Structures are given as structure tokens and as C-alpha cells.
């Protein structure tokens, strides 16, 4: 059902209504294990990223999401687990990073393609927030797995935070080259920041 829903409804809406302009699509790794990181401005972000994959690749795509938000009622929980196939995690302070990330690690060990937002929650439209170090502690457990950065522009205007009205808007997607984990936390976080900043700067977008 999930494959059919995306093929017949979600992808046509994403590619026609939003008018995606994908840069360097050939860079996108189509098989797992893979951790895909992106900026986060809209509820549409995950649907757009999932729509980049098809067939066997799509079946392995699973976004990481906050369990306390996406499982808070029956309808949202059904959509999140049955359609989006999220990996729910708890948003709370803990020193047991491996335990918190275990469901993600299990999926990666099964050739999963994981969607993760280093910013955490959604930020202001078309503005990057400071990246949280959760991505570092996750990749520390699987340092050999590639990380692929993607920058999206326009979704923060098409469906911004706290809005429920979709505004047709051209969306630009910039796909970067995969890279690997670096043991030094400061250097790794700088690498994550720089790679997403470079993709953002490729668009040479003016501030809105």
C-alpha cells in the first residue's frame, strides 16, 4: 500500500504541484546502508526526500522522527508508521546514545536508507539552525556508513512551520557527494555544517 500510495498520489503531487528542480540527482546513492541528512523547514521535507527514491530503494527508506509528536494520536500514528514508516525516537536527554539510536542502527544493519535532520526540529523558513551533535553519536556507532547531504530550498514557503495550507512553490533540491564519519566531534560537526552550507550557496538565493 505504501508503494502504491506514493506512486499514484504523493509523487505526482510533489513533482507537479511543487515543481521540483533537482540538482545532481546522479549523486544520490540508491542503496543502503545510507544516512541522508538535510535541512528542515517544513512537514513536506520528508515526503519530498522519500519521493526521490523508487522501487527497491524506496522500500528501504525510513525517516527518523520524534515519537512524542508523531505517535500522539491514532490518525497521526497510523499515517506516520504505516505510510511514512518512521523510526520513532524519544526526544530526551540521555547518556545512553547507543540505546536511543538502536532502532536506527538495526535498520542500517539491514541496508536501510535513513533520513535524518541534524537541526532536530523544523526551523524558520529557508534559514539554517545550528546542527545538534546527535548525528555525531549515531555515526560513531557505524563510522563506515556513508552520509549524503541534501539542501532543500522553497519548502519553508510552500508549507512553513505551523501552517496547514499548501502553497504551490518551486522547490530546489541540491544533492551533495557522500562522505564519511570523522572521530573528532568538532571537526565532524564542522564538516556537516560546511557541506550543507556549500549546497545552500550553490543556489545563490536571495533572502526572503
- What kind of sheet is the major sheet? 7 strands, mixed
Alpha-beta content class? alpha/beta
Instruction: Give the domain tally.
Output: 1
- Tell me, rounded to a whole number, the average pLDDT: 83
CATH class descriptor name: Alpha Beta
CATH architecture: 3-Layer(aba) Sandwich
Number of helical elements: 9
Beta-strand content bin: 15-25%
In the predicted model, the low-confidence regions spanning at least 5 consecutive residues are none
GO molecular function: 1-acylglycerol-3-phosphate O-acyltransferase activity
Domain Phospholipid/glycerol acyltransferase: 34-155
Pfam families: Acyltransferase
Keywords: Acyltransferase, Transferase
Can you describe what's shown?
Helices cover 41% and strands 16% of the residues. By secondary structure, it is α/β, with parallel strands linked by helices. The protein has a single domain, classed as Glycerol-3-phosphate (1)-acyltransferase, CATH 3.40.1130.10. Helix 6 crosses helix 7. A seven-stranded mixed β-sheet has the order 1-7-6-2-5-3-4, sandwiched between helices. The chain is built from nine helices and seven strands; from the N terminus they run αββααβααβαβαβαβα. The model has no long low-confidence stretch (mean pLDDT 83). The chain is globular and about 40 Å long. Pfam families: Acyltransferase (PF01553). One of its GO terms (molecular function) is 1-acylglycerol-3-phosphate O-acyltransferase activity. Keywords: Acyltransferase, Transferase. This is 1-acyl-sn-glycerol-3-phosphate acyltransferase.
Amino acid at each position: 500500500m505504501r508503494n502504491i500510495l506514493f506512486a499514484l498520489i504523493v509523487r505526482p503531487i510533489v513533482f507537479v504541484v511543487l515543481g521540483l528542480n533537482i540538482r545532481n540527482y546522479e549523486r544520490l546513492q540508491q542503496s543502503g546502508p545510507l544516512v541522508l541528512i538535510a535541512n528542515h523547514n517544513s512537514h513536506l521535507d520528508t515526503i519530498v526526500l522519500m519521493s526521490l527514491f523508487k522501487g527497491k530503494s524506496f522500500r528501504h527508506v525510513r525517516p527518523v522522527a520524534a515519537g512524542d509528536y508523531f505517535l500522539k494520536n491514532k490518525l497521526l500514528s497510523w499515517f506516520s508508521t504505516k505510510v511514512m514508516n518512521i523510526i520513532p525516537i524519544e526526544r530526551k536527554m540521555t547518556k545512553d546514545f547507543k540505546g536511543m539510536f538502536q532502532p536506527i542502527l538495526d535498520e542500517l544493519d539491514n541496508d536501510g536508507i535513513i533520513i535524518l535532520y541534524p537541526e532536530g526540529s523544523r526551523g524558520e523558513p529557508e534559514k539554517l539552525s545550528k546542527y545538534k551533535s546527535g548525528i555525531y553519536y549515531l555515526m560513531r556507532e557505524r563510522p563506515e556508513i556513508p552520509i549524503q547531504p541534501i539542501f532543500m530550498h522553497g519548502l519553508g514557503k510552500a508549507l512553513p512551520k505551523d501552517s496547514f495550507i499548501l502553497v504551490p512553490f518551486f522547490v530546489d533540491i541540491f544533492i551533495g557527494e557522500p562522505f564519511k564519519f570523522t572521530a573528532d566531534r568538532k571537526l565532524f560537526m564542522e564538516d556537516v555544517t560546511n557541506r550543507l552550507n556549500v549546497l545552500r550557496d550553490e543556489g545563490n538565493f536571495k533572502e526572503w
